[in-house]
Amino acid sequence: MKYTKDGKTGKMALLVFCATFIFLLSSCDVKKQNIQNNNDWENEVLYADECGFDGLRCCDDGEQLCKFGQNCCVNPKNEKENYCSKSCDFGKENTFCRNENPACDIGLVCENSRCLLCGGEDQFCCVDGNACKNSLICFNNKCVNCGQAGYPCCDSGLPCLKQDNRGNIRTECRNGICQSCGYGGVKTCANEPFCNSDTLNNNGVCYQCGGLNQPCCDEKGCNLEERLVCELGFCIKKN
Questions:
Q1: Residue 142: Cβ-neighbour burial (10 angstroms; 0-12, 13-18, 19+)
Q2: Is 158:164 a contact under the CB 8 Å cutoff?
Q3: Contact 182, 194 (CB under 8 A)
């Protein structure tokens, strides 16, 4: 086949374009591989730095367990647990518990081999006579406020903080624990009103009512603002 001058020029241009495109693709792959290799190298450095510093585990290298002249502190009750620190004086906050009594200093409690603050809200209970500070009470080994849902009832005043609510979340004291009641999806309350005004009592459980495709409420029926009407016990919209 013969080519005109213009045809040869066009073919040469196409070949140059293809060669350039292939070169660019190979360059991208090399660059991508270099980036991947750099990330791997950085990840290895980060992994190596996860030991030997203050508060971190001791390194496995026998020559330098800790950096900057710190000591490798080993848990007296579990030799596999350790951390780096200037001092291995145990029994203080966030250090290992001592192997003898007292395991921790005053105001601290030994939990999971560490000495932690105790007695404050949502902190572990202390082991001395004052398990919790102020009016907090010890419940399931945590210091909590009484009267909240799921926590013990209070001994004075209202047993439960929200037992007088009538249009919102309510609680009542049952078997010494404040339990939710009276609103959508939970049990009825022991005292009237058994369910809030926007819920309906059905076999001891309060269900939402008054909304579209929901059961009609006993008192208010259906939501008038949404132009709903009660038919056959359910709220529907009519044109």
A1: middle
A2: yes
A3: yes
If residue 236 lies in a helix (H) or strand (E), which one and from where to where? strand 234-237
Tokens at 78, concatenated: 């579990």
Q: Is residue 68 part of a domain?
A: yes
- Within-domain flag for 58: yes
Range of the domain at 65: 54-88
What the block records as the tokens of 172 is: 């009542």
Tell which residue, 207, 212, 216, 215, has the closest CA to residue 236. 212
Q: Are 184 and 211 in contact (CB under 8 A)?
A: no
In sequence order, which residues have a C-beta less than 8 Å from that of residue 55 and are 6 or more positions away? 83, 84, 85, 94
- The answer to whether 58 and 82 have CB atoms below 8 angstroms apart is yes
Q: Report helix, strand or coil for 1.
A: coil
Domain count, the chain: 1
Tell me the pLDDT of the chain (239 aa) as tens digits: 444 445 455 555 555 555 555 555 455 454 444 444 445 444 444 444 589 899 999 998 777 899 888 999 999 999 999 999 999 999 999 999 999 999 999 999 999 999 999 999 999 999 876 799 988 999 999 999 999 889 999 988 889 987 766 666 788 999 999 999 988 889 998 888 888 888 889 899 999 999 999 999 887 788 887 889 999 889 998 77
What residues form DSSP beta bridges with 152?
177
